[in-house]
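Retro notes (design track)

What went well: tokenization of the new backbones is finally stable.
What didn't: we kept losing track of which sequence belonged to which structure.
Fix going forward: every design gets posted as structure first, then sequence, in one message. First example under the new rule, 76 residues:
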């Protein structure tokens, strides 16, 4: 999966998990009102549905979805 596919997968999964119709790579997760529980749901969905690993620390430290996507790795 290339970088664009990872970003698109992240955004699509986030839209579904958070029930938000429109997200961009520049959107900040927490500025959107997402809670830490929601973030755990996102991380879990990425791994369960797509075999992608996103560390919770990255979620909290990233400024936007584009930054997060750059740190996602495939599950081993």
């Amino acid at each position: 999966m290339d970088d664009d596919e990872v970003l698109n997968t992240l955004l699509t999964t986030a839209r579904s998990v958070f029930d938000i119709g429109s997200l961009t790579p520049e959107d900040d997760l927490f500025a959107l009102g997402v809670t830490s529980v929601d973030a755990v749901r996102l991380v879990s969905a990425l791994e369960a549905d797509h075999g992608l690993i996103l560390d919770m620390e990255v979620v909290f430290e990233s400024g936007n979805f584009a930054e997060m996507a750059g740190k996602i790795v495939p599950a081993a």
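Added context from the reviewer: The chain has a mean pLDDT of 94.
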